[in-house]
Amino acid sequence: KSGGGGTINASINAISTAGGTFNVLKYGAKGDGIADDTNAFGGAWADACKVQGSIMLVPSGSVFLVKPISFSGPNCMSNIVFQLEGKIIAPTNSGAWGSGLLQWLEFTKLKGITIRGKGIIDGQGSIWWKLTTNSAVESESSYLPNSINTEANGGMPSTKPTALRFYGSTDVTVTGITIQNSPQTHLKFDGCTGVQVSGVSISSPGNSPNTDGIHLQNSQNVVIQATTLACGDDCISIQTGCSNIYVRNVNCGPGHGISIGGLGKDGTKACVSNVTVRDSIIQNTLNGIRIKSWQGGSGSVKGVLFVNIQVSEVENPIIIDQYYCDGHNNCPNKTSAVAISGVSYQSIKGTYTANPVHLACSDSIPCAGITLSTIALNPSTKGVKNNNNNPYCWRAFGEIQTATTPPVSCLQKGGPPNNKRPDAISGYVC
């Protein structure tokens, strides 16, 4: 179906309804892990892009060295499949990255794009990590350029790329593949609608800085399930503009847990709603299920359900932190905040190594509608880091629906005063 030399004849192009398979080897790819196969990938995509329901094939048994590339629409036909069976590796020489890029492999402005297969995307990120910070110190700029010491990192540029990014696309499916050792975030969805992620494996060392597993931003109607995430930052990071997010049957760890935020940095407005995380395992992580925001922001997080989460050796299993500061910024006290309401924790069980429950909410806009039921969190048999490891609450209002272990007596019953209710505060409405 595919033609050599990077083009396909017009007669075959006209037969678009039947689809077609475009093998990168037929476009000159060497697949030896040494030769630059970027142009071959670009040629195969250019022809696949013209054919509805086409398949761009990256075959098994080969290793393809590919420089930063964008597989772009919006003029592509719909329902293209990127069939990944081989291995794609990123370049490790600084010249391939210029002055720095935000992503390595990008799919943008497409409708009905699927990446599937048993293949591997390897960002070869260790050269970017040489100036490694302590894994317990986060940078919440994980979705922005992250500066590193270029001399300590083989002259690599100061902007570390995301391995695989989807932007401005609808009906996106990622299934079966492995993404590993990204210089920064592994898999990012920005401005996407209708996303399905399943059977994906993401991995990088626990001390690799800012290597989020899956990052969501300005995306709606997202399902993530049956996926394993082991990384150096949040397993899943849910940022502003996200709604109708459903996470199920995820195995997270090591890493920093599953997080909504950080939101509201630099006085920005953040809106997140209708998030469910359920039937998942979180182990050997800094946090479990977390909502975090900077002081000074606005907007809201509402309609969040965490249910049937098993935690093991997690420092802070349940955490809301409206005083988030990453240690790299001066964070003075501010009165405005991203309002948090309607958050339910059900059947959260397992072991902790620092604090079981930490609910630190805003003085001016307290958390409202926090409910806890069937919470059973016990100290690790290996010991805990803090002598005072009782549940902590500040300006958190809600209901204890069943007895909890340990007792969370600090949660204030009912709701905040009328003048401090989230829906009564200017800037809350999204």
TrEMBL record:
Top-level taxon: Eukaryota
Organism of origin: Erythranthe guttata
GO biological process: carbohydrate metabolic process; cell wall organization
GO MF term list: polygalacturonase activity
Protein name (record): Polygalacturonase
Protein family per UniProt: Belongs to the glycosyl hydrolase 28 family.
Keywords, comma-separated and alphabetical: Cell wall, Cell wall biogenesis/degradation, Glycosidase, Hydrolase, Secreted
Lineage: Eukaryota, Viridiplantae, Streptophyta, Embryophyta, Tracheophyta
Compartmental location: Secreted, Cell wall
InterPro entries in alphabetical order: Glyco_hydro_28 (IPR000743), PbH1 (IPR006626), Pectin_lyas_fold (IPR012334), Pectin_lyase_fold/virulence (IPR011050)
